[in-house]
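Budget justification aside, the reviewers requested a transparent look at the raw inputs and outputs of the sequence design task funded under Objective 1. We therefore reproduce one unedited record. The lines immediately below are the structure tokens for a 218-residue chain.
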């Protein structure tokens, strides 16, 4: 069985050891859990993290009633998309059947790069679905979660986010660039980590120090 979940707050994510964080103005709140036996599914470990993080999110949202949790999704690059794959787009991707159909979401946006074409999209995620969202981004490294007051789900916003988190056409999220977006303001960037052979799963929420002080300790 997994051991108890731990929550840790650091005013400097960079000093805490997150080397991809470039600014000293970014804090981090980390929720972690470990499995003591290899037979314990990391999905169970991640579920314990998500349950704790859901409570933190609810407290934060009470201070930011206009903010929402968003999921940014991008498929891998593929050189030979056809009519079927284009019709399927991002929302027909495997593993997204947990997304409620009524959720506000963007159109499926096709992006081109040196590696071929990929699809991207953006959707709101209720805090009650944080586990499925967190486990999805844990196992799909071109996706991430974030909290924002800006609710537009336009093609322009999807393309702008993709340009920021894939600045050099990367296939996976460039976390230095992703976290850079929260150095100021009231957005929160959320990373979920833990591979199938890791002992630990973690949800790390990066935010400006001023915002953390406004929200209070988790």
């Amino acid at each position: 069985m997994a051991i108890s979940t731990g929550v840790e707050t650091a005013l400097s994510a960079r000093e805490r050891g997150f080397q991809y964080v470039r600014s000293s103005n970014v804090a981090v709140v980390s929720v972690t859990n470990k499995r003591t036996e290899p037979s314990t599914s990391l999905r169970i470990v991640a579920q314990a993290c998500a349950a704790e993080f859901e409570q933190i999110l609810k407290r934060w949202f009470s201070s930011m009633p206009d903010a929402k949790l968003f999921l940014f999704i991008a498929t891998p690059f593929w050189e030979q998309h056809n009519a079927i794959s284009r019709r399927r787009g991002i929302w027909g991707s495997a593993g997204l059947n947990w997304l409620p159909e009524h959720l506000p979401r963007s159109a499926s946006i096709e992006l081109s790069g040196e590696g071929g074409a990929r699809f991207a999209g953006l959707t709101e995620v209720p805090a009650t679905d944080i586990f499925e969202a967190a486990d999805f981004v844990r196992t799909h490294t071109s996706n991430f979660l974030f909290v924002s007051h800006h609710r537009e789900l336009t093609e322009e916003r999807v393309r702008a986010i993709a340009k920021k988190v894939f600045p050099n056409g990367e296939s996976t999220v460039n976390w230095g660039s992703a976290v850079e977006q929260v150095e100021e303001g009231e957005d929160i960037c959320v990373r979920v980590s833990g591979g199938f052979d890791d002992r630990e799963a973690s949800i790390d929420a990066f935010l400006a120090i001023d915002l953390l002080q406004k929200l209070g300790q988790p």
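The chain has a mean pLDDT of 89. The first strand starts at residue 6 and ends at 10. Computational costs for records of this kind are itemized in the attached budget.
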